[in-house]
Specification:
Strand order of the largest sheet: 1-2
Helix content: 40-55%
Strand content: 5-15%
Largest sheet: 2 strands, antiparallel
CATH topology: Arc Repressor Mutant, subunit A
Structural class: mainly alpha
């Protein structure tokens, strides 16, 4: 199975849809930090605060989260289909899962 450029862990913003948004580096950093440290699915209030922080409309912020979640799911499926599977435990530690 070939790895697509859009699903490599270090190349998050490589999908064409994400590139079309033409975000500044600082906006992308704020959005990524929110995605990884706060939530992958922000509620209305959180979405409004994130949009205000990065200077985007709520619609554009919601679109970014939708696209980013799709990339996250594709990477997750790729990892599950690889030779070694990893699952999150309740403590947040990563352990090797047997197939």
């Amino acid at each position: 199975m070939q790895r697509k450029q859009g699903i490599t862990p270090g190349n998050i913003m490589s999908s064409k849809a994400m590139e079309c948004m033409m975000l500044a580096e600082e906006q992308t950093k704020v959005l990524e930090d929110s995605f990884t440290k706060v939530t992958r699915h922000p509620d209305g209030t959180t979405l409004m605060l994130i949009a205000a922080e990065c200077g985007l409309s709520e619609e554009d912020t919601q679109k970014w989260f939708k696209l980013r979640n799709a990339q996250w799911r594709r990477r997750r499926v790729f990892r599950l289909n690889s030779d070694q599977c990893w699952t999150d435990t309740e403590e947040g530690e990563k352990k090797k899962a047997l197939r």
